[in-house]
Amino acid sequence: MMEAHLKLAQQIADKFAALPQVEAVTVAGSLTAGYANPDSDIDLYVYAESDILPAVRSRLFAVSASHMELNNQFWEPGDEWRDAATGISVDVMYRSLNRLQEILTRNLEHYQASVGYTTCFWQNVLTSEILFDRNGRFYNLQQWAIRPYPQPLVDAIIAKNYPILRDNQSAYLQQIMKAVKRRDFVSVNHRVAAFLASYFDVIFAINRVPHPGEKRLPALVDERCEKRPLQMSAQVNALLQAAAQPDETISAHIHALMDNLDVLLHQENLK
User: Whole-prediction pTM value?
Assistant: First the structure.
């Protein structure tokens, strides 16, 4: 991890540690995944038993923060700011350890899949670096989560995501082609993104690799996955280029991706 980023992350964690409801503070994202650069932000996760009031959070960092956005609710509850001294961007997300345990249990013990990004929380926990852990709850959860990728979860992810790629009547291929015919380019973009979300969920499941999130996916597949469809990266790029000016030929790019995925699934006895 980059030294200045780690030092600042620990300073922020120490301030949160003074609040009695805070159980743990961790850092994850690019800083712990090994692909950070000087422009990377700090992704901090604050696990608390009860809500930390925005006014309290503001007081903690009012002096050291610039361009602060408090209590964003667009995805997870969070705060964002730029550290005035270093210029490093900070993204703090507030979570519950109980809720996190429920999500991981659904994946790792009940084998419940999502439509895309099924195992992102698992990956986040596995790659988190603990900065504060009042009673060791996060450490215990992290150790519990260190296990082989369950085969029933592999099967569940494929069963949930594969049919909606092109097989079903409501599959993404059909939705994309309908959008092309009505010249609805916004819908094409939206459905192509959804197609790729499920496609990559299947790829990571085949390889028993927890899903790393939405960034750098073709590169991360190349780095972490031994089992890949032929010409995957080139075909993904071709699909995205076709989606920028969509016409009837976009279906050929989707079929090319799917045909090679089918070959891989047959090779692995997963289809």
Answer: 0.93
